[in-house]
Amino acid sequence: MKITVVGTGYVGLVSGACLAEMGNDVLCLDLDPEKIRILKEGGIPIHEPGLDQVVARNVAAGRLHFTTDVQEAVQFGTIQFIAVGTPPDEDGSADLQYVLSAAKAIGRHMTDYKVIVDKSTVPVGTADKVKAAVRAELDARGENIPYSVVSNPEFLKEGAAVDDFMRPDRIVVGAEDDQAIFLMKALYAPFQRNHEKLLIMDLRSAELTKYAANAMLATRISFMNELALLAETLGADIELVRHGIGSDPRIGYHFLYAGCGYGGSCFPKDVKALIKTGADSGHNLRVLNAVEDANDAQKLVLVDKVVERFGEDLSGKHFAVWGLAFKPNTDDMREAPSRVIIAELFRRGATVTAYDPVAMPEARRVFGEDARLVYAERPMQALDDADALLIVTEWKEFRSPDFDVIKAKLKSGIIFDGRNIFDPALPKKAGLTYLSIGRP
Ligand SMILES: NC(=O)c1ccc[n+]([C@@H]2O[C@H](COP(=O)([O-])OP(=O)(O)OC[C@H]3O[C@@H](n4cnc5c(N)ncnc54)[C@H](O)[C@@H]3O)[C@@H](O)[C@H]2O)c1
Ligand SMILES: O=c1ccn([C@@H]2O[C@H](COP(=O)(O)OP(=O)(O)O[C@H]3O[C@H](CO)[C@@H](O)[C@H](O)[C@H]3O)[C@@H](O)[C@H]2O)c(=O)[nH]1
């Protein structure tokens, strides 16, 4: 099948590469000439394990191409995936300007039947807006070319994106006409081991499903984070509680890890957008408001613990921070807890040496030139002259350190672990004070 992907960011590139891997001819469009230049020269603008091989293989096979030419891109694919960003607007709602401008471009240049697929995360009712935007462009041209609009939200996780796309738990397709349903079924046939994975529904239910999934996952995390704080006060261990409740299949083990808050390009923005959708339609989504509040507070929990030990004023104190990305296996720092933690340490007068296996170039962009923040080449080097260590991202390479070396380096001998990555007995055996989330 011939497919165009409009927007070659995270989701666009992973989707385009994986759809090519399944034998389709894919043309990825982006308006950012720098991104397309990197891709055309064989580079990958994001860090995502395994993606480079899939891209290289399909470029070499002649199935995956990149362009900045809008007209060429629109005329290429029968299926047009819109995978552009939907960042939060000032009031928390999803900003649809990129989606609608992509839709208009399709209406402006299409010359034959198109299935226009919203893959971006978009609020309920967006498919109707996309339909209207395309119709307005066709009317302006005096054309009446047929087209369908489909909602096909994406559920991939960064760091595991290729696997999530190629082996999905489910594929949600919101569609309202037989031709579009037929084409979407044919497109996804090779992706499914069993047919129950393809869930065909109406457009609005598909749009809401995406927000419901992220909101449910964010709720589990905020719930566990609050219980972790309670566990600390009560002298219980949240990790044992997690095992205790996760063994109930109605609850399950996934997404129950307490930590220093959820970040990333999706949960924070999608929870906000769903709250706004609720408010706009007369529903105060109380649970989700609390989920967001709890997460905002949780991002500061490590600093609260630092303040308990070192006092409100941290002038003259220096901290090592391990982990900058919002989670392991990505260089993405969008809404990362590290941003809030480091900013709060600065506000209180402290300085920081940070280490992250892949996100340091991104951190340089995020924080800019700032004398209060330097970067280490290795995790242990970050500990030089540090009063204490803060662990913010659970990268594998942090999991088995030499605790005696940490003890020798840290002035206070304190580790503040925001991701519960160690068995507490090990740092304690080396004489360190180990403060994690929700554990005695
Ligand atoms: N990042 C994720 O893990 C993830 C997972 C599932 C769903 N989503 C959703 O997918 C959407 C895209 O997210 P992302 O992280 O890939 O965004 P991104 O910011 O990485 O990429 C968006 C790209 O779209 C391009 N673009 C904008 N307008 C364009 C236009 N009119 N024509 C062509 N290109 C255009 C931008 O230049 C950019 O490269 C969002 O709605 C997001 O919520 C993201
Ligand atoms: O038990 C857990 C699991 C995750 N997190 C945090 O939650 C955030 C998000 O993690 P994750 O969901 O793994 O990453 P994303 O790549 O943001 O993926 C989410 O957001 C995507 C964009 O919508 C969806 O497609 C995915 O299904 C959804 O998991 C990160 O900060 C994690 O540290 C926790 O604190 N505890």
TrEMBL record:
Enzyme class, first EC level, given as a word: oxidoreductase
GO BP field: polysaccharide biosynthetic process; UDP-glucuronate biosynthetic process
GO molecular-function term, one example from the UniProt record: NAD binding
Pathway: Nucleotide-sugar biosynthesis; UDP-alpha-D-glucuronate biosynthesis; UDP-alpha-D-glucuronate from UDP-alpha-D-glucose: step 1/1
List of residues binding substrate: F155, L156, K157, E158, K210, F255, L256, Y257, A258, G259, G263, K327
PROSITE patterns from the UniProt entry: PROKAR_LIPOPROTEIN
Catalytic activity: UDP-alpha-D-glucose + 2 NAD(+) + H2O = UDP-alpha-D-glucuronate + 2 NADH + 3 H(+)
Residue ranges of domain UDP-glucose/GDP-mannose dehydrogenase C-terminal in the record: 320-424
Entries under SUPFAM superfamilies matching the protein: 6-phosphogluconate dehydrogenase C-terminal domain-like (SSF48179), NAD(P)-binding Rossmann-fold domains (SSF51735), UDP-glucose/GDP-mannose dehydrogenase C-terminal domain (SSF52413)
Pfam families documented for this protein: UDPG_MGDP_dh (PF00984), UDPG_MGDP_dh_C (PF03720), UDPG_MGDP_dh_N (PF03721)
Transmembrane segments: none
InterPro entries: 6-PGluconate_DH-like_C_sf, NAD(P)-bd_dom_sf, UDP-Glc/GDP-Man, UDP-Glc/GDP-Man_DH_C, UDP-Glc/GDP-Man_DH_C_sf, UDP-Glc/GDP-Man_DH_dimer, UDP-Glc/GDP-Man_DH_N, UDPglc_DH_bac
Keywords (A to Z) from UniProt: NAD, Oxidoreductase
Domain of life: Bacteria
Positions contributing to NAD(+) binding: D30, K35, T86, T121, E158, K269, R334
Active-site residues (renumbered): C266 (nucleophile)
EC number: 1.1.1.22
Stated family: Belongs to the UDP-glucose/GDP-mannose dehydrogenase family.
Protein name listed in UniProt: UDP-glucose 6-dehydrogenase
Source organism of this protein record: Zoogloea ramigera
Primary gene name: udg2
